[in-house]
Specification:
Length: about 100
Amino acid sequence: MPLHLCEWHILIEDFTCFLKQSTVFTQLKDLFEVINMAVPKKKTSKSRRDQRRAHDALSQIMVTECQNCGEKKRPHHICDGCGFYNGKQIIRQNDTVATA
């Protein structure tokens, strides 16, 4: 007949005085720590799982048009096309792009 978890704990406590420095004791201890892990009592339903994941969806990136060149850019970011932000040139952009 298999032993109950509480009976295993009693056996481990009895063996500790004999096997304190033994590698067998550390292996047994590691084995029983795995047994005492937290396990859910009931299966999580699909509805509850999906309700938890309701806020995990990715949101769309907002895109606005640059006031200077008309290229699409993210709001509150420097335009990649012309280097302007809020009507001021922040980064100097080269008109010619070097090709390899």
